């Protein structure tokens, strides 16, 4: 049975552990007239001051990154190429690390509204990328700074993946050794993973 996570979920875990543990959770966005959701199948960890690929590398503190220095479970949204990307802050206050949500598997009841939100896109293209899933879920920059515990966005324990794969992150060029960190985590075989190859799709994704 699904259950909302609380702040205790983030306790005594590293950002890498959390990026793995979030795989299979149901990401929920409750709106006025309907609720949209999907199971997380792909994440990336960003390790703050020591990670050249992180917005908060060297503890950089700007208007955009300020929320990253907040409490775990805080929502960090930012725009890239006119798309909104969704992150969750992971560590205790003052340590600016986060998990980027890269892809979700839509729940059946969400499909039709997600297709409307995505302007007619269907199938795996619906949510197989970080900007695609936020558009499908109706998320925006107005969600910046909310938390997973007292807002209309939350996580529920839901599914358990058979295998979680770790590979290097996508779109992180010219960041020194950080380019090659194996900090991208996926539910192996999911067709909703971004840049998924057809011959890697499996029917045995969840336990």
TrEMBL record:
WIF domain span: 153-207
Biological process terms in GO annotation: base-excision repair
GO molecular function: alkylbase DNA N-glycosylase activity; DNA binding
EC number: 3.2.2.-
Keywords: DNA damage, DNA repair, Glycosidase, Hydrolase
Transmembrane intervals: none
Taxonomy, superkingdom: Bacteria
Pfam families: Pur_DNA_glyco
Keyword check for Membrane: no
Family: Belongs to the DNA glycosylase MPG family.
HAMAP family listed in its UniProt record: 3MGH
Record-linked NCBIfam families: 3mg, PRK00802.1-2
Protein name, per record: Putative 3-methyladenine DNA glycosylase
Species of the source: Listeria farberi
């Amino acid at each position: 049975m699904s259950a909302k996570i609380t702040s205790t979920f983030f306790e005594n875990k590293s950002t890498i552990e959390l990026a793995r543990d979030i795989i299979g959770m149901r990401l929920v966005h409750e709106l006025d007239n309907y609720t949209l959701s999907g199971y997380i199948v792909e994440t990336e960890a960003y390790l703050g001051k020591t990670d050249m690929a992180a917005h908060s590398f060297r503890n950089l503190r700007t208007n955009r990154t300020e929320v990253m220095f907040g409490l775990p479970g805080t929502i960090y949204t930012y725009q890239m190429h006119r798309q909104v990307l969704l992150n969750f802050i992971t560590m205790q206050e003052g340590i600016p690390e986060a998990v980027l949500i890269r892809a979700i598997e839509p729940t059946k009841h969400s499909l039709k509204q997600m297709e409307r939100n995505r302007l007619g896109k269907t199938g795996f293209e619906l949510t197989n990328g970080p900007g695609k899933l936020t558009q499908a879920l109706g998320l925006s920059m107005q969600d910046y700074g909310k938390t997973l515990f007292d807002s209309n966005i939350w996580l529920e324990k839901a599914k358990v993946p058979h295998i979680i794969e770790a590979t290097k992150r996508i779109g992180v060029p010219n960041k020194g050794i950080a380019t090659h960190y194996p900090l991208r985590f996926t539910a192996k075989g999911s067709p909703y993973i971004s840049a998924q190859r057809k011959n890697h799709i499996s029917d045995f994704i969840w336990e």
